[in-house]
Write a structure and sequence with these properties.
single chain, TIM Barrel, nine-stranded mixed sheet, two-stranded antiparallel ribbon, globular, disordered C terminus, binds iron/sulfur cluster
């Protein structure tokens, strides 16, 4: 594969804990990319030759603002097109917004705001308006992305808001899927994303794992160069991607003889459920824990303890 884009998950930590989050972002989650790791990823991105764009997200990357800013500067200096995604928790007024955004002006191609009723309830509109007003003055292009339940896409919406339906993987498979209409598991004979064979963008998590979809890794660039990982990627032989390409989540279940539900909300829901059952068998591929709802929380003594989310 020859990805043209790398999306760096700067942190699994987030200011929010949204029901639809693919990566189980949370204030209690741990895992953040260091500046040194970012630099190493950018070195490898240059070595790849095919990579044109670097985007930064999470979790919430503005929680690690100094690292984000230095990462954006490094990426822009090396000639990459740069994007940043945020939930705009920091945009409580225009003057503060200016402080946050001014250093990014001229360096980023676009700022994507994840903004919907899962994120901001009543504050939603004002935070978005603050960012849009300030970004326009600074010459930063803004895109607002809004996740909605299928069937509730708003025909009257602002055309600048890009609405997309919930995909039921990550926390959405646990928190939202039970409320969604369900269809027979046998319907899901193809992957929902379409480019697992030759993804144009891969995600890099704080531990260096390279994901073709959240929680499906093809290698770790801290252990092996990204260029080699991409050159050696054989999707049909990958133990998770191979079955998905052959027959979607249904094939994943059949190939490994997995127990399964009779109905799912969508292909991602069926896929995620099957992958949960396969984690013990493919621990290095179906990683890290954060992508599968294992939270690291501070106990009253201040030490970290694991807890597994209730996965139904
Ligand atoms: S079906 Fe699986 S691999 Fe495809 S987009 Fe959904 S979760 Fe990702």
């Amino acid at each position: 594969m020859k990805p043209t884009g790398l999306h760096l998950l700067l942190s699994f930590q987030c200011s929010r804990e949204c029901d639809h989050c693919f990566v189980w972002g949370s204030p209690f989650q741990r895992g953040a990319m260091t500046g040194e790791t970012v630099k190493g990823v950018l070195d490898q991105a240059e070595d790849m030759k095919s990579v044109e764009r670097i985007s930064f997200g999470g979790g919430e990357p503005f929680l690690y603002y100094p690292v984000l800013l230095s990462a954006v500067r490094m990426a822009a200096r090396r000639g990459f097109r740069v994007g940043v995604s945020t939930n705009a928790y920091w945009a409580s007024c225009e003057s503060d917004c200016t402080e946050w955004l001014s250093p990014l002006a001229g360096l980023i191609e676009d700022l994507t705001i994840s903004s919907d009723w899962y994120h901001w309830e009543a504050d939603l509109k004002q935070h978005v308006l603050n960012v849009c007003a300030v970004a326009q003055d600074l010459g930063i292009a803004v895109q607002v992305r809004s996740v909605v339940f299928p069937g509730s896409l708003d025909e009257e919406r602002d055309p600048q808001i890009l609405e997309s339906p919930v995909e039921y993987r990550g926390r959405a498979s646990v928190e939202l899927a039970p409320e969604a209409p369900q269809v027979s598991w046998l319907e899901f004979k193809s992957c929902a994303c379409g480019d697992l064979r030759d993804p144009k963008e891969v995600q890099i998590d704080p531990y260096g794992n390279v994901h073709v979809c959240e929680g499906i890794t093809v290698g770790n660039l801290l252990k092996r160069p990204l260029r080699e990982i991409c050159e050696d990627y054989e999707p049909d032989l990958h133990p998770i991607v191979g079955p998905l390409l052959q027959g979607g989540p249904v094939e994943l279940v059949l190939r490994y003889g997995l127990d399964h539900k009779m109905h799912y909300a969508d292909a991602c829901h069926a896929c995620y459920d099957a992958r949960l059952a396969l984690r013990g068998r493919f621990p290095e591929i179906l990683a890290p824990d954060q992508m599968y709802g294992v939270k690291r929380e501070l106990d009253p003594l201040g030490s970290l303890s694991d807890s597994v989310a209730d996965e139904t």
